[in-house]
Amino acid sequence: MGQGLSCGEPHEHGLFRAVQNGEIEAVEAMVDEEPRVLEKTTASNGRLSALHLAAANGQIQVLSMLLDRSVNPDVLNRHKKTPLMLAAMHGKISCVERLIQAGANILMFDSLHGRTCLHYAAFYGHPDCLQAILSAAHSTPVANSWGFARFVNIRDKSGATPLHLAARQGRPECVHILLDSGALVSASTGGYGYPGITALHLAARAGSLNCVRELLAWGADRLQRDSSGRIPYTVALKHKHGACAALLNPSAPEPLIWPSPLKFIAELNPEAKALLERALMETNKEREKAILKETVCSLPSPLHSEAGDDDDISEASDVELCCICFDQVCTMEVQTCGHKMCANCTLALCCHNKPNPSTPAPKPPVCPFCRSDITRLLVAEIKTKNDTQVEFSPSKPRLSRKSFNTSEGSSSFKGLSAMGSFGRLGGRSSGKVSSECDGDKS
Ligand SMILES: [Zn+2]
Ligand SMILES: [Zn+2]
């Protein structure tokens, strides 16, 4: 290719610079003048095409223009990386979305590590890109040919799934999204790292307390051994991650585990789910405090849950308290019977400490007030007398009765009933396009 362009060196240099800088008019002019300039690749960087450069730099306008001119969305560089992989690697969500829209194949493997775009989004920690690719996997031919579950657990050359890479790199949000999408929490890598290690081993090695928490809350087994017989606890100790080791110590109390019983609630809507997830993580953090207190390590304080100043605490006498614990606000409502309780009590009903593989599947939880099966949970409307905005952390368990705390990332519940205003509370970026990603250089 490119025979006709042998004298065009400065031309193509100019092209790549213009693409990188998002100079759309300049790029268009060059392409109009000589369409075959697009066949050129950079001399360095593994021979990137103009589309690769646009994707890696988040130049969405240039990228769109190139795609509109029928540039192959799956053009490969020397290492068989696609523009979609580069966009996912650099967290350029709008480019990821545009490429997928243009038909980019999410099931391509590079030649370096045999990784897909999903691996790259997980490894580099871009939850929005990860989510976009997973959404595409539901609707594209991948779902038919491979099946979604297989795609989520896709392995690279050395046997690493996206979950392994996210745990290895300490990307708790990506870990969460992947687990929530069906990633197998206890899958071992095969060859990546040490033979037989799991995501929990990798998180332990990275010292990522948040990843360890997520994995444990999804039922990762602290006793699972790699092929040399090491449990994650040993790995954390070896790498001197005291806090992780404390949680991974098999003799420490088990955390609450999220999914199994809640799976029986067929229609757990996203708002209710986000609220419960948050409550679960908060509850586990409370439980961790006791564990971590005993360890000699000084934490960089991921447990930022000291009660706020008294100024932050507002009287809540006019808010409906949970009739089970009389401690927290009713945030959950059983849809069929309308009974309400707080998120913590809901969790207590639904979660158990340790799934026992030998027992048959547990029954769906029942409403503690009327004993009817809980088949659907909703976020209860928070009623206050004067409808002032009440801020509180939904699961803060250790505050004096009738009081709320506004510290630590709490969100307003005022808008809870309004659809779509809740996404923030879950703390996950749910595939939302953030425009600031678009224009910036990497
Ligand atoms: Zn309660
Ligand atoms: Zn009931």
TrEMBL record:
It is an enzyme of class 2 (transferase). Keywords: ANK repeat, Metal-binding, Repeat, Transferase, Ubl conjugation pathway, Zinc, Zinc-finger. Residues 389-442 are annotated as: Disordered. This is RING-type E3 ubiquitin transferase. GO terms for molecular function: ubiquitin protein ligase activity; zinc ion binding. It comes from Actinidia chinensis var. chinensis. Residues 322-371 form the RING-type domain. Residues 402-414 have a biased composition (Polar residues). Its EC number is 2.3.2.27. It catalyses: S-ubiquitinyl-[E2 ubiquitin-conjugating enzyme]-L-cysteine + [acceptor protein]-L-lysine = [E2 ubiquitin-conjugating enzyme]-L-cysteine + N(6)-ubiquitinyl-[acceptor protein]-L-lysine. Pathway: Protein modification; protein ubiquitination. It holds the Pfam family Ank_2. The keyword Transferase applies. ANK repeats lie at residues 46-78, 79-111, 113-145, 158-190, 195-227.
